[in-house]
Write a structure and sequence with these properties.
alpha/beta, 6-stranded parallel beta sheet, 4-stranded antiparallel beta sheet, globular
């Protein structure tokens, strides 16, 4: 263990603000470190944690269905690992473009799914909207059917799924698979009346009441949002709250 910033002079020297301290855990890599086990789990795209016993240097790697949080005590260091946070968006309209702009700086990989040939907005509008969309390395677009995409991607506990087409056929196809997945957030756009009708439709299929209750709809925090940028903000605010463990 190495600690910096115990005195005011050290804090000033190392640029630690507000009286903060910096604690480093320096670990010798041995056969007890379990780094190969963690590397193999990461290669399989698994979520998990590596727990290090600070007294013995023995590490244990375990898988988790949902993301764990970083934890540090006098005896144990717990570090989560796994694939990037993802948002799967069904529908490639104006609202999606605003969502992408906000989601990428928050660290999300965005997968946009829309099998339709016709977009609501004219071509020149779409060109203006996508002018400052983040680089394609962070955004993937596909024309697969939504249910096929969800089955292929196998959403995990670091995945949020948002249905934004306003087309019940496409949105419901995605939701039927999304609500059975391990995704930490599943939401759909639409009014309260539309959401009630949607839940009735979903109940006709092989979904349990508990699975249907996972649906966030109307989507997003109740910010009084009306415009596409405001709705995108409300959606990401709700996703961020749940990602950070806030009810």
């Amino acid at each position: 263990m190495q600690t910096y910033g115990l005195t005011a002079d050290e804090a000033h020297r190392f640029g630690l603000p507000c009286g903060g301290t910096l604690e480093l855990v320096i670990e010798r890599v041995t056969s007890r470190s379990a780094l190969d086990v963690m590397r193999d789990a990461i290669g399989r795209g698994e979520l998990g944690v590596r727990e290090l016993d600070l007294h013995t240097g023995h590490a244990r790697v375990r898988s988790d269905a949902q993301p764990s949080v970083f934890a540090y005590t006098a005896t144990r260091l717990t570090v989560p690992f796994g694939p990037r946070w993802r948002i799967i968006v069904i529908g490639d309209g104006q609202l999606t473009h605003h969502l992408i702009r906000m989601a990428v700086p928050l660290g999300y990989q965005v997968i946009v799914c829309d099998p339709r040939d016709i977009h609501d907005e004219p071509l020149d509008t779409r060109q203006r909207m996508t002018h400052d969309v983040p680089p394609s390395a962070h955004v993937t677009r596909t024309r697969e059917m939504p249910d096929d995409l969800i089955l292929r991607l196998r959403p995990d506990g670091r995945t949020a799924i948002v249905a934004l087409t306003h087309d019940p056929k496409l949105d419901d196809m995605a939701l039927l698979e999304a609500l059975k997945s391990d995704a930490f957030y599943v939401g759909a756009i639409g009014s309260r009346r539309n959401q009630a009708s949607r839940r009735e439709r979903l109940a006709m299929f092989d979904l349990t009441t508990t699975q249907i209750e996972r649906l966030h709809g109307p989507v997003g925090l109740p910010l009084g949002a009306r415009t596409p940028p405001e709705i995108a903000l409300a959606i990401l605010a709700e996703i961020t709250a749940l990602r950070n463990g806030m009810a």
